Amino acid sequence: MKMQENIALAPLTTLNIGGQARFFVRAEEVEDVEAAVAFADDKNLPLFVLGGGSNVLVSDKGWPGLALQIGISGIDHSHERETIRFVVGAGEEWDAFVALCVSRNIAGVECLSGIPGSVGATPVQNVGAYGQEVSQIIASVQVFDLATKQVREMNAEDCEFGYRSSVFNTRDRGRHIILGVTYELRHGGPPNLQYADLQNYFASREETPTLSDTREAVRKIRAAKGMLITPGDPDSNSAGSFFKNPVLTASQYEELTRRAKERNLEVPSYPALSQQKKISAAWLVENSGFSKGYTKGRAGISSKHALALVNRGGASASDIMALQNEILKRVEDTWGIRLEPEPVLVGF
Fold first, then answer.
1. Which of 15, 125, 229, 252 is deepest in the core (most CB within 10 A)?
2. Collapsing DSSP states into helix, strand and coil, what is residue 69?
3. Are strands 63-70 and 20-27 parallel, antiparallel or unpaired?
4. Which residue numbers are catalytic?
5. pLDDT, tens digit (0-9, with 9 covering 90-100), for 134-167
6. Which residues pair with 217 in a beta bridge?
7. What is the DSSP letter of 66?
């Protein structure tokens, strides 16, 4: 284990924002994780676990304790009847794993192409896009339990997956360090084309799209929305979608549609949960007076997608938070809905 001091965290995040970590370790083995936790305990240091840095906003003050980056690698697979099980290290790049599956004609992750970050981050927020969520394919998650100081396996039910949520970011937030994930996938399965954007993309095509076709389409759609990390693209300096799509009760949805009707607007929605409606956060933002490309100092909204807050160059965490708060207040004042931010806030 190589312990480093006063390491800048900004270059380790896709927003490229944040101060220094007092101590920093990149753990490439389970034993490194155990040693790092023991070090933090011995020094009475707060612990922050970093993956690919694609869904975090680090404060300008940085992190006063130990930042532990999980770099555990390795991809093993086994066949079980009609399924293939992949055991993947938490430090593996997510999109590289997706590419591997698609290249082998293995279905179940093709719509999750182009999502930045590491494998270990996927269970935390039940990462999903274009009609797929990792909760549909996760068999188990290997963790280091900070409460018991033991490595253990959690099955999918233990993870308590919900919309952009799991036990890892709700009830037991901060208790587990994810070491690896086991995914259960199907060889030769058809691509998932239930999402409207994909249906529109392939509307003029007569032959059935392959998994490779679907992966390519998803990446192109994400790029058009500024949701693909592309060198040289100023809209890439983001943490992805900064706000979750709110899920409303029937009465909340009724109130929203009433307000929309007063403005001669129609609310786009689709069924999410029983008796509830999932609403487009991007629609709420744009219909609260924030256009794509909106700028507030050195921070702004992506020119391609209303949910991505971007670093226009030299932005601070305070700049991003000021823009976030402005959006939150106006959406709530306009629609009576309090949006929930998606990124993990570190050091605030």
1. 15
2. strand
3. parallel
4. 164, 241, 342
5. 999 999 999 999 999 999 999 999 999 998 899 9
6. none
7. E
